[in-house]
Amino acid sequence: MNLPKKPMNLAMVAGARPNFMKIAPLIAAFNGDSCFDINLIHTGQHYDQNMSESFFRDLRIPEPRHRLQVGSGSHAQQTAEIMKRIEPVFIQDEVEAVVVVGDVNSTVAAALVAAKLDIRVIHAEAGLRSFDRTMPEEINRLVTDSISDLLLVTEESGRTNLLREGRDPKQIVLVGNLMVDSLRHNLNEAMDSDILTRLQVCGCFGLVTLHRPANVDNDGKLTEILSALSEIAEDLPLYWPLHPRTRTKINGIGLPSAIHLLDPLGYRDFLHMQAKASVILTDSGGIQEESTVLGTPCLTLRDNTERPVTVEAGTNRLAGTSKVSILNAWQESKESPKAGAIPELWDGQAGVRCHAAIRGFLLPS
Ligand code: UD1
What we know:
Elements: E1 8-14, H1 17-30, E2 36-42, H2 49-58, E3 66-67, H3 75-92, E4 97-101, H4 105-116, E5 120-124, H5 136-146, E6 150-153, H6 156-164, E7 172-174, H7 178-191, H8 195-198, E8 206-209, H9 213-216, H10 219-235, E9 238-241, H11 244-250, E10 259-262, H12 267-276, E11 279-282, H13 286-294, E12 298-300, H14 309-312, E13 316-318, H15 323-335, H16 350-362
Parallel strand pairs: 1-2, 1-4, 2-3, 4-5, 5-6, 6-7, 8-9, 8-11, 9-10, 11-12, 12-13
Bound molecules: uridine-diphosphate-N-acetylglucosamine.
């Protein structure tokens, strides 16, 4: 007798804000594939309504099967807590493969637990390297990639880095950018957002985001950045949705009234502001990519980027973190704006290509 084959239990792990835009198109791409039972696990690394649930709503991500509610902590505490709570889930659910995305603590924690349980690990957004090991995300990327079985990359630099690290070319697939899928699928609705009216923005404006520990936890750097932003705000009003980490650091610092501090924004409202901004000043990874696709000039407040295609092909410029370097980059971007091209395969179909690559890897015919 031929019994119907049980679908493969494929876990997908998300935990922090930038994970949600990547997991949404991936889940959508597996919709209707009866060979897989998708087991979404939310670690709870991010938990505030406007850091997590609003993204589930805007991106129409289904309710996770498991919420681990790990919350905040030091890197060791948070990573360890995710590992402790996710291991019994993998065992009880008889998870057969795990997809992790991006470079946050949830990514590396889930990958480590899976690898030690001999569960296959698939890393979406593999191979990105800033070559700066003081960045916690760089450690997460290196560790996750080194124990992943299938490496899905967003840009050619990812493949080059992985090959240099000795990875088998057969394990690497250029799939494009999942975050861009979310952007393209949501752009029309985002453009209907009335966020600019609600904020009473009239005319041109700049958009700021800042959350890297290297920038906001370092008083010297933060002072340099704030001083550059204050000068730019004399030309262009700046709107700055504050990450919780940053809010605690700049509380009590007097800023010019042309720098408007906001609570974190929902996905569509923020996309709307990115599309309409004259310039974006950021230390985020994902925003470098989104601004390139939207054609908005981006000044990255860092000395390096793990996403070089956004500088080589896109609208991104590395502006450094000193007052002088930021103001120079701002001047340059006004005098010679970059035309910017869309990187290869950033076409809204990355989810479909991920699905095909994962299927081919897990269910070879
Ligand atoms: C994390 C990621 C970073 C990513 C960023 C996006 C790591 C190592 N870092 O950094 O790569 O770019 O998310 O936002 O995984 N907090 C809240 N509410 C929340 C979440 C956090 O108030 O919902 C506060 C807590 O005080 C917490 C602090 O923000 O201690 C930092 O959160 P955490 O997740 O540890 O790191 P992020 O800076 O958000």
